[in-house]
Design brief:
heterodimer; A: alpha/beta; Aspartate Aminotransferase, domain 2; four-stranded antiparallel β-sheet; 14 helices; globular; B: alpha/beta; seven-stranded mixed β-sheet; 18 helices; 36% helix; 10% strand
Chain lengths: 447, 490
C-alpha cells in the first residue's frame, strides 16, 4: 500500500497502532458488527497514474463538441477576463472552508462583503446575502421566505413568463414545504396585469414572482406592480439575469422587496450548467428573514476593521428546524468569481458588455427577419435574447446549424425558437450563422 | 501581507476613469439599449469599482494571504473532512472541452461529459452499496432536502400521506432538522444514551405509523459508530419508515462498511468531503443522493441515462413518480468532474485505505491528548472525536480560547461548540492525508496550550496574537449590522 495522497509508511502505521493499543488496522473497527462489514472489492476501475488520467480525460473531452453558442435560457456564453480564473485558483481561497474562524479567514469574509455590496448596488436593493446555489433555488427560497413573512397567506403567484426550469424548482420546493403556487397568465409574452389584479383580489397571496428580462428575453413593464402587490401585503420578488441589471431598471427601482437570480452571466464559464452562483437581495426590513450566510463589518480587539459571519440566529446550526432555511453554505468561490469580474469590469465595463450583447442580438434578429422566414413572436422590447416564429421544421434547421458548429437557439414551441447573443459573439459569427440558416431555407424550398 | 497598504475594500481603491477590462469595439451600428423606453432602464451606471487590472490583481492576491486553506496547513475541523484537494483535479475541471459546454447542447455533442456523469453515478453506487444516484444537488444540505423529498414521494405514492415525522438523534448536524422543516416534515428528536449512541428504548417509544424516516449520521457526530444500527434499521423498517444516511461522515467508512449494507435506503454524499473536491470557502460543493433498488422512480429530474445503443442522453419529462426538479440544470458539473478524477486516481486498490488511515490518525490523536483534554465518552472512535474542553478548567480557559490559541501556532481550529451534547465541545478530525509528523506537531502544540492554560491563562484567553487580525467582536456585528459598503459610508 502506497499512494501519493497517503503519507503513511508501514513503519508509521505500525508505530501509531502500537500507540493506540491495536495490532492491526482492522481492529480499529471491532465495534462494527461483523455482519455489516464490507469485505469485498469495490466494483471500481484500477487506479490511474496522472499521465493515464490526463489521457483518459482528454479522450473523453474529445467526445464533446465545443459550439458557437447562440442560446441562453439561463446560461450564457460570456467573456471571462483571464485574471478571474487565475485569482480563484489561489489555493488560500480554493481550499478553505466556511469562514468560521474570522481571524484566519479575512480573505473570504472580505470578498463576501464586497460581493454583497456589489450585488446590492447592481440590484438596487439594501442588502444581499453571501450567495445561493443557483438562480432557481434562490427563487424557491424567496417564495418560502414570502410565506414566512406573510404568516397567514400561503400562496405565491408566479408569472407564466418565467423560465419553466425555475418554475419547476419553485413548484418542487413549494409542494414539499406545504405552500401553494399559482400562475399569473401571460398576455403577448408579458405578465398579464389584469390577471395579477384578479388573483391578488382573491386573497391569500404572500408573494408575487416575475422575471426580468423574462424567459423570452422580453423587458417587461412593471409600472404599478409594486403598489398593487404591497396593497395586498404580499412581497414583490423579481428574478433577473445579474449582468443585464447594469443597464435595465433594477428590482429596487421597480419597488421589489426581494431580488433573486443567477450570477452566471458575470463571466462564469458555462461548465455544463454548474457551478453557477445564485444571489438574493432584499430590503432592510427583511434582513432577519433572509436565508443563507451573511457577512458583516465589525472590529477586532486591536481596533482593526474586520469582517465576520453575522446574524447567524437565522441559521440552521443555531436554530435547527426553526431556521429560515436549511442552507448552510453558499457558492462562495463562485461569489468570488463574480466579485473579481465586477471589480475588473466595473462601472463602465458591465454597461459596455451589456450594450454589445443588446446590439448583437438586435442586429441578428433583424437579419433573421430579413430572410423572410422569421417573424418576431412577440411585439415587445427585448434585451439580448429573443423569440422568433419559424414556420418550417425547427429541428431540421438546428441540425443543419449544428453541422456547422453552431448551437442555434433553443426550441420553445413547435414553431418558436429563442436565440441569445452575448458580447463574446462577433458580427462575423452572426453573419455566418444567418448564412447557414439562409442556405438551409433555400435548400428546403423555402420551408 | 501589509494590511495598512492592502487591507482596503476594492471600492476604496476606485478612481473615476480607470478601467480593468478591454472589450472589442462594437461592430454594430444603430442598436443601443437607449432605444428601449426610458422607464425600463436604470438611468445611471451601477456604482461599481473603477480600477485598473494590476490593482485588482494585487488586491485579491493580498487578501488571499489572510486566508488559511488546506494547502496552508493542518485543518482538523471536525465533521468537515478537510482532506487534500488534488491539483490535477483543478486542471481537469478547467479543461475547455468540459467548461465550454452549454447545458442545453444536444446530447450527441456532450457524450464525453455525460459518460463521466453516468460513470460517477455508478461509482458512488458501488462505494455505498446502493442502487442509483442523482448528482443534481449542489451541496450536502441540498442533498438532505432532496433525499427527504424522495422519501416523501415514496410514501405519497403508496397513499401513505400521514407519514410526516422524521426521527433525528440529538447529536445530529443542524442541517438535518432544518432540511426536514423545509421539506414540510415534523422533527422528533431521539435521545442519545450515555455511550453517545442512539438510545434504542427512546427510539422505540417514538416509533409509530406517522414516521416517514429516521435520519442518521454513522459514525455519528461524536465520531462513534452506531453499533446498534442493525436493530435500529429493523425497528424503523418494521414500522414502515425508511432509513436516511447523512453522508457527512462517510469518509471513515471507505473500505470498512457500506451504508446500503447497514440498511439505509436513501443517502447523500458530500463530494467536497469524502471525494476531495475543494470547499472553496463554503462552496460550490455537491451532494449526490443515492437510493436503494425500488426507490429510483422518485429521484429528481433531469436524469442522465444510457440507452441500449450505449449512448447517453438527458431526460426530464417522462418520470411520473419523480419528486420534480431541485436545480436549474444537473448540479455542479465541474465538481462532479473533480470527484471523478479523484476516484480514478485512487482506484479500487487504494480507496479502501481511506477509512482505516483516517481512523488511525484520529485514534492516535485522541489517545495522546486525553490526559490534558476531557474525553466525555471513552469509546473507540472512527475518523473524529470530541473533547469537552480542557480537563482542568480551573483557570477559566474555554474551548474558544484553545481554538484561537491554535491559530497562533499555524493550525486551523477544530470544530467548536458542536455537537451540542457538551458545553465545551472540541471536535477533531484529521484526514488520511495527514502525516505522523504533522499530527505529532499538533499534539505537541495542544499539550503546550494545556500547560499555558495553567501557567499563563491570559495569553490563551486573549489569543490569537499572531494572526492578521485579533479576536473579532461578533456582538457588535450583529447589534449594528453593516452589510454593504454603502453602510460604511453612512
Amino acid at each position: 500500500m502506497s499512494h501519493k495522497y497517503f503519507p503513511h509508511t508501514e513503519a508509521d502505521i505500525h508505530d501509531m497502532l502500537e500507540a493506540v493499543g491495536h495490532k492491526s488496522l482492522d481492529q480499529l473497527f471491532d465495534v462494527i458488527p461483523d455482519s455489516i462489514r464490507f469485505k469485498g472489492d469495490y466494483d471500481l476501475p484500477a487506479g490511474m497514474s496522472e499521465l493515464e488520467l490526463r489521457r483518459h480525460l482528454e479522450q473523453l473531452g474529445q467526445q464533446n463538441t465545443l459550439l458557437t453558442i447562440f442560446a441562453g435560457a439561463g446560461i450564457y456564453d460570456h467573456y471571462t477576463p483571464s485574471v478571474v480564473p487565475n485569482i480563484i485558483a489561489r489555493s488560500e481561497y480554493l481550499t478553505s472552508y466556511t469562514p468560521y474562524q474570522a481571524e484566519i479567514s479575512q480573505g473570504t469574509l472580505h470578498y463576501i462583503f464586497e460581493f454583497q455590496s456589489m450585488m446590492a448596488e447592481l440590484t438596487g436593493m439594501d442588502i444581499s446575502n453571501a450567495s445561493m446555489y443557483d438562480g432557481a433555488t434562490a427563487t424557491a427560497e424567496a417564495a418560502i421566505m414570502a410565506v414566512a413573512v406573510a404568516k397567514k397567506a400561503d400562496t405565491v403567484l408566479i408569472s407564466a413568463t418565467i423560465d419553466p426550469k425555475i418554475r419547476r424548482v419553485v413548484d418542487t420546493y413549494a409542494h414539499y414545504h406545504g405552500i401553494k403556487t399559482a400562475t399569473i397568465e401571460a398576455h403577448d409574452g408579458t405578465t398579464d396585469r389584469l390577471d395579477l389584479e384578479r388573483k391578488l383580489a382573491a386573497g391569500g397571496v404572500a408573494g408575487v414572482v416575475v422575471q426580468m428580462p423574462n424567459y423570452y428575453g422580453i423587458v417587461e413593464d412593471y409600472t404599478g406592480f409594486a403598489d398593487l402587490i404591497h396593497e395586498s401585503k404580499a412581497l414583490f420578488i423579481i428574478n433577473s439575469v445579474a449582468a443585464d441589471l447594469a443597464v435595465l431598471k433594477t428590482p429596487g427601482q421597480w419597488g421589489a422587496d426581494v431580488a433573486v437570480g443567477d450570477g452566471q452571466s458575470l463571466g462564469i464559464p458555462m461548465s455544463y450548467g454548474g457551478p453557477s452562483v445564485g444571489y438574493m437581495c432584499c430590503t432592510e426590513r427583511l434582513v432577519r428573514k433572509m436565508p443563507g450566510r451573511i457577512v458583516g463589518m465589525t472590529r477586532d480587539n486591536r481596533g482593526n476593521r474586520a469582517f465576520v459571519l453575522t446574524l447567524q440566529a437565522r441559521e440552521q446550526h443555531i436554530r435547527r428546524q426553526k431556521a429560515t432555511s436549511n442552507i448552510c453554505s453558499n457558492q462562495s468561490l463562485m461569489a468570488l468569481f463574480a466579485t473579481v469580474y465586477m471589480s475588473l469590469m466595473g462601472k463602465q465595463g458591465l454597461v459596455e458588455a451589456a450594450n454589445m450583447s443588446y446590439a448583437g442580438a438586435h442586429y441578428m434578429c433583424q437579419k433573421l427577419i430579413a430572410t423572410g422566414h422569421f417573424t418576431l413572436e412577440y411585439d415587445q422590447p427585448f434585451f439580448n435574447e429573443f423569440c422568433l416564429r419559424y414556420d418550417g421544421d425547427i429541428d431540421a434547421l438546428q441540425a443543419k446549424c449544428l453541422e456547422q458548429g453552431f448551437m442555434a437557439g433553443i426550441k420553445t414551441g413547435e414553431h418558436t425558437i429563442m436565440f441569445a447573443v452575448t458580447e463574446k459573439r462577433t458580427k462575423e459569427e452572426i453573419d455566418r450563422l444567418v448564412e447557414v440558416i439562409g442556405h438551409n431555407l433555400y435548400q428546403d424550398g423555402n420551408n | 501581507m501589509n494590511n495598512k497598504l492592502y487591507g482596503k475594500l476594492i471600492i476604496e481603491l476606485s478612481h473615476p476613469g480607470r478601467k480593468g477590462y478591454s472589450l472589442p469595439h462594437s461592430e454594430y451600428e444603430g442598436y443601443t439599449p437607449a432605444d428601449l423606453p426610458a422607464h425600463l432602464l436604470r438611468g445611471k451606471a451601477p456604482e461599481l469599482p473603477e480600477c485598473d487590472e494590476p490593482t485588482v490583481v494585487r488586491h485579491y492576491t493580498n487578501h488571499s494571504a489572510n486566508n488559511f486553506g488546506v494547502t496552508s496547513g493542518f485543518y482538523p475541523l471536525g465533521s468537515c473532512t478537510m482532506k487534500y484537494n488534488p491539483v490535477i483535479n483543478e486542471e481537469v475541471a478547467a479543461m475547455q472541452q468540459f467548461a465550454g459546454l452549454h447545458p442545453l447542447q444536444p446530447a450527441e455533442t456532450c457524450q464525453g461529459a455525460l459518460r463521466i456523469y453516468h460513470e460517477l453515478q455508478s461509482m458512488l453506487a458501488a462505494i455505498t452499496g446502493l442502487s442509483q444516484f442523482t448528482l443534481n444537488p449542489c451541496a450536502g444540505a441540498h442533498g438532505e432536502l432532496t433525499g427527504l423529498m424522495v422519501i416523501r414521494a415514496y410514501h405519497q405514492s403508496r397513499g401513505d400521506d400521514c407519514r410526516t415525522k422524521v426521527l433525528i438523534p440529538d447529536s445530529a448536524h443542524g442541517t438535518n432538522p432544518a432540511s426536514a422543516a423545509v421539506c414540510g416534515l415534523e422533527v422528533v428528536e431521539v435521545k442519545s444514551q450515555a455511550d453517545g449512541t442512539v438510545d434504542v428504548d427512546d427510539l422505540k417509544s417514538k416509533l409509530d405509523e406517522g414516521v416517514a424516516c429516521m435520519m442518521m449520521t454513522n459514525p455519528n457526530t461524536l465520531g462513534l459508530f452506531e453499533h446498534n444500527i442493525p436493530e435500529i434499521q429493523t425497528l424503523v423498517h418494521q414500522c414502515g419508515g425508511l432509513m436516511y444516511y447523512d453522508g457527512a461522515n462517510l469518509n471513515p467508512m471507505l473500505g470498512v462498511c457500506r451504508p446500503g449494507d447497514m440498511g439505509f435506503d436513501v443517502m447523500h454524499i458530500n463530494l467536497h468531503k469524502t471525494f476531495s473536491t475543494p470547499h472553496g470557502g463554503g462552496g460550490p460543493g455537491s451532494g449526490p443522493v443515492g437510493v436503494r433498488a425500488g426507490l429510483e422512480p422518485f429521484l429528481p429530474t433531469p436524469r442522465v441515462v444510457q440507452g441500449d445503443d450505449g449512448t447517453f442522453s438527458v431526460k426530464t419529462g417522462q418520470y411520473e413518480q419523480s419528486l420534480g426538479s431541485i436545480g436549474q440544470f444537473f448540479g455542479n458539473y465541474a465538481v462532479v468532474l473533480r470527484a471523478y478524477a479523484y476516484i480514478l486516481t485512487m482506484g479500487r486498490e487504494n480507496i479502501g485505505m481511506v477509512g482505516p488511515l483516517a481512523t488511525l490518525n484520529a485514534n492516535y490523536i485522541k489517545e495522546q491528548l486525553r490526559d490534558d483534554y476531557l474525553l466525555p465518552i471513552d469509546s473507540p472512535c472512527m475518523h473524529e472525536f470530541v473533547f469537552d474542553g480542557l480537563r482542568d478548567k480551573s483557570q477559566g480557559v474555554t474551548t474558544m480560547d484553545v481554538a484561537k490559541r491554535l491559530l497562533d501556532y499555524g493550525y486551523h481550529a477544530p470544530t467548536i461548540y458542536f455537537p451540542l451534547l457538551f458545553h465545551e465541545s472540541l471536535m477533531i478530525e484529521p484526514t488520511e492525508n495527514e502525516s505522523k509528523e504533522t499530527i505529532d506537531g499538533f499534539i505537541e502544540v495542544m499539550h503546550s496550550i494545556a500547560r499555558e492554560a495553567q501557567t499563563n491563562p491570559d495569553e490563551v484567553k486573549s489569543a490569537p496574537h499572531n494572526t492578521p487580525i485579533g479576536r473579532v467582536d461578533d456582538v457588535l456585528a450583529a447589534k449594528n449590522p453593516v452589510l454593504t459598503w454603502k453602510h460604511t459610508q453612512a
